[in-house]
Specification:
Layout (H helix, E strand, L loop, with lengths): L14 E3 L6 E4 L3 E9 L3 E8 L2 E6 L3 E15 L4 E5 L3 E4 L4 E17 L1
Antiparallel strand pairs: 1-3, 2-5, 3-4, 4-9, 5-9, 6-7, 6-8, 6-9
């Protein structure tokens, strides 16, 4: 197995998903996920995409995100709303609770550590 892995989703079939119905706050958001790495110790990397809508999020994991396209608003409970768009990078730490609202279909690269 090579130790250099390119995040390449061409020709790969995405996993289809959506937020749990009880977490949806607006719209009918749908997810597509291309998980290209699943390493020992609970580390995942790949590409995720969501269509417009708004839902509650609760993070138990640590996640690095880099927005590739689209526009979303993340709002932490009791905190300010942050608009993210192509080129933005950020980390969501365990314990983050709030909402994710997709204004324009958003695609991100991610690395998750459980």
């Amino acid at each position: 197995m090579p130790l250099f892995l390119t995040i390449d989703i061409s020709g790969a079939e995405p996993e289809q998903g959506a937020p749990a119905p009880d977490r949806v706050l607006a719209g009918d958001p749908k997810f597509r996920t291309w998980n290209v790495e699943e390493a020992d110790g609970g580390v995942y990397a790949g590409i995720w995409e969501a269509t417009p809508g708004k839902w509650r999020i609760v993070y138990d994991e640590w996640e690095f995100c880099h927005i590739l396209s689209g526009v979303s608003i993340l709002t932490e409970d009791g905190g300010e709303a942050r608009t993210v768009r192509a080129g933005d990078s950020f980390v969501l730490r365990p314990g983050f609770k709030g909402s994710w609202e997709v204004l324009e279909t958003t695609r991100k690269e991610y690395v998750i550590r459980l």
